[in-house]
Design brief:
Elements (H helix, E strand, L loop, with lengths): L2 H24 L7 H17 L23 E3 L9 E2 L2 H15 L5 E8 L2 E8 L2 E7 L5 E3 L2 H4 L20 E9 L2 H14 L7 H9 L4 H5 L4 E11 L6 H10 L9 E4 H15 L7 E8 L2 H7 L9 E5 L4 E13 L5 E12 L2 E7 L3 H6 L3 E2 L2 E7 L3 E7 L9 E2 L30 H12 L11 H9 L6 H4 L6 H5 L6 H13 L5 H7 L7 H11 L2 H5 L7 E2 L2 E2 L6 H12 L1 H12 L22 E5 L7 H10 L3 E3 L8 E4 L5 H9 L3 E2 L1 H10 L1
Parallel strand pairs: 2-11, 21-22, 21-23, 23-24
Antiparallel strand pairs: 1-6, 3-9, 3-10, 4-5, 4-7, 7-8, 10-11, 12-13, 12-16, 13-14, 15-18, 16-17, 19-20
Helix pairs in contact: 1-2, 17-18
Bound molecules: 2-(butylsulfanyl)adenosine (IVH).
Length: about 675
């Protein structure tokens, strides 16, 4: 390659890497898989090494990405926040060790091997044991202040435990990773899918998108997690090694990695990395590699750093399991709100030990974006090690026999012409009588996410729909009249039938939000259902709401419920069928429990919520804080339980704070409380 060609290629690669950095760090919406990005960076590095005359201080190969966004206050880290060099090869991992062997003139170097958690880096400042702020990495020097959002993370203590043996430092910036568990990721994406809004590709993107939300109450609805793995600034200096660090942070009550390996020499490093590769599939979160760190802090200082990363650590990344297979057909599923989801039917292929024969393609745009045709050979990967996704098409194997997929213009289950609402990516079957939708709606109504009626699986719903016993939701409450027919279904069904009928009766008094969620109103997920229940207090009030009740003077009336959702709700209940559904439910004695009644100065944050106060607040007395909560429809209790919504904590808070952590109850301080009061 001539220098002129190399110069062009370097410029091109720099532009590509910068583009992907922008998408990944700022928008949490990457277009390519992490390992493909790593290949681009490696290629750029190789060219820059080969043609040093084109080196640049601004090259993305030697600068960390930048996650800072408008709308956040920036904060300067007291100690630079760097990234990590990474490799996919054992040989390079051994070369990393050899460089250190040369530097320290000894083979028996002590390392710590840790999981590399797939989330986003954060620096949390504690002063005198109190949480002061949480800042994203930003460009390494300054990051976005996301303290209000980070405070909603249950596992993040507002106050460190400080003991005589292990006192909390005067001041420290401690580094860690904010992440989402795979289960929480699936819960949120499932809700988004049903609401017809774009899905997050993986838990990392969703965690990054969440911490950058401008409304902390939205953040609190998603269960972010945090784990700490490093120290930035610390006064007085803390531990002398990474393994001591792990012990110490635990004593302060901070969450740390679930397992780490203190090892000696590179062979032990490699065994630990291999063991982690086995274990990580059982972790509740995504782990995309192992981080190998020199254990001694003194040795770390000697090893130093480059502009982007320390020389004393390296990330060994696991190659994601990928398989190539052919798309035999594309079929379509219909969800309970009518959303049509295309599914690729694959030539079955084994990926990470399981056979994959179907992969969701999510929506028409996704098929177009990835340029997927029927008959194409595609690469599939397991996102977050759980859900298989199509990464891309192997274009070199495309033949003229491959067919462009035509998205159906009619519902494949009821033949009704499909529709696409403004601003939605989803395509829907608008027919309320679509048999597949009816089954899905019934299934959702009785599911854990709604009324939670045990004993009514999808097979039984199918059977009851086929027999004509259940045509719509209210028929479920009429099943007692069909007890004889239910008993005639087989031998030994008396007990299970009676249990089911009892469960249905019991469900008549579930919490109101469960019934609202169970109605399958487009766009209305769990969080919105809770806000609606708190605001309207009853099904009739919700069904009779006007647009004005949601959106007035260009502003949302109900926090968490945007104008568009309000419009959808009004439209939903403008259909006589849906109003009748509410009337019938009431006739069948369905009496869902409303949260605590609305107060004059209504607020979705406070209404119906239970607060526990602990410690001394900087400016409010206990009575004043209680008065404010109660005036806005909230309750104050003395005991922290699983049902507590928030703990309002001040200085000197003790066992209630521990209980809150144990039960995963969000803890807020007076600043956050004041913000909620202002925004009520
Ligand atoms: S140490 C200066 N340890 O991976 C060294 N980072 O790809 C700082 N990460 O920016 C990082 N797990 O966000 C370290 N056990 C771990 C990690 C970890 C995940 C993230 C971190 C870092 C990125 C680099």
């Amino acid at each position: 390659m001539t220098p002129a060609d190399a110069k062009k290629r370097i410029a091109d690669l720099r532009a590509q890497v910068a583009h992907h950095n922008e998408l990944y760090y700022r928008h949490a919406q990457p277009e390519i898989a992490d390992c493909d990005y790593d290949v681009l960076v490696q290629e750029l590095r190789d060219f820059e090494k080969q043609f040093p005359q084109f080196a640049s201080k601004d090259s993305p190969s030697i600068r960390v990405g930048d996650d800072r966004l408008e709308g956040f206050v920036q904060y300067r880290h007291r100690q630079l926040m760097q990234s990590l060099d990474n490799t996919y090869s054992e040989e390079e991992l051994r070369a990393f060790h050899q460089r250190l062997v040369k530097l320290f003139e000894r083979e028996d170097l002590d390392y710590v091997v840790e999981p590399k958690i797939d989330g986003l880096a954060v620096s949390v400042t504690y002063e005198k044991g109190q949480l002061i702020r949480a800042v994203t990495r930003g460009n390494g020097e300054t990051g976005d202040d996301t303290t209000a959002n980070a405070r909603t993370i249950y596992a993040l203590p507002l106050q460190l435990k400080s003991t005589t043996a292990h006192p909390a430092p005067e001041a420290m910036e401690i580094r860690g990773e904010i992440y989402l568990t795979t289960a929480e990721f699936q819960r949120i994406n499932k809700e988004r899918e049903e609401e017809g809004i774009a899905l997050y590709a993986n838990p990392r993107n969703l965690a990054a998108g969440t911490i950058k939300q401008l409304d902390s109450r939205e953040v609190a609805k998603r269960k972010l997690e945090i784990v700490f793995y490093g120290i930035g600034f610390c006064e007085p200096a803390m531990a002398g090694s990474q393994s001591e660090f792990h012990q110490l942070v635990k004593t302060w009550g901070l969450p740390t990695v679930e397992k780490y390996w203190p090892v000696r020499g590179i062979d032990e490093v490699w065994s630990a990395v291999s063991e982690l590769d086995q274990l990580r599939h059982g972790f509740s979160y995504g782990t995309d590699g192992a981080v190998v760190k020199l254990d001694s802090f003194a040795q770390q200082r000697t090893a130093g750093r480059t502009s982007k990363a320390p020389r004393w650590a390296i990330a060994y990344k696991f190659v994601p399991q990928r398989a190539e297979t052919q798309i035999k057909a594309i079929t379509v599923q219909v969800g309970r709100t009518g959303v049509l989801t295309p599914v690729a039917e694959l030539d079955p292929v084994i990926l990470s030990g399981t056979t994959i024969s179907r992969v969701m393609l999510h929506n028409r745009e996704e098929i177009a974006r990835k340029n997927i045709c029927i008959g194409d050979y595609v690469f599939v990967e397991k996102a977050g090690e759980i859900i298989p996704v199509v990464i891309n098409v192997n274009k070199s194997r495309r033949t003229p026999a491959c067919q462009v997929y035509e998205f159906p213009i009619k519902c494949p289950f009821c033949n009704t012409p499909v529709v696409q609402f403004n601003g939605e990516v989803a395509i829907r079957c608008p027919s309320p009588n679509c048999p597949t939708q009816v089954r899905r709606r019934l299934g959702h109504f009785v599911s854990k996410a709604a009324l939670h009626i045990d004993g009514l699986g999808s097979a039984m719903i199918d059977e009851m729909v086929e027999k004509g016993w259940v045509k719509a939701i209210p028929d479920l409450f009429r099943l007692r009249l069909r007890r004889e027919e239910l008993l005639a279904r087989g031998k030994n069904v008396e007990k299970s039938t009676d249990n089911l009928l009892d469960a249905i009766d019991k469900a008549k008094t579930v919490e109101l939000w469960r019934v609202i969620h169970g109605l399958s109103i487009p766009h209305v997920g769990t969080a919105a259902s809770k806000d609606l229940a708190a605001h309207f207090g009853g099904l009739e009030a919700l069904a009779g709401a006007k647009l004005d009740d949601f959106f007035r003077e260009k502003k949302s009336v109900i926090t968490g419920i945007g104008g568009r959702m309000g419009k959808v709700i009004v439209e939903f209940f403008s259909e006589p069928r849906n109003r009748e559904l509410v009337t019938e439910l009431l006739q069948m004695s369905v009496r869902p429990q409303a949260p605590a009644k609305k107060a004059a100065g209504y607020s979705t944050v406070f209404a119906g919520k239970t607060f526990v106060l602990t410690g001394t607040l900087p400016s409010l007395t206990r009575e004043e804080a209680t008065g404010k909560i109660e005036a806005l429809g909230g309750k104050v209790s003395d005991i922290v339980s699983k049902k507590t919504n928030f703990v309002l904590a001040g200085g000197g808070a003790g066992s209630k704070l521990d209980k809150a952590r144990e039960f995963g109850v969000p803890v807020i301080d007076e600043t956050e409380f004041a913000r909620w009061l202002n925004e009520k």
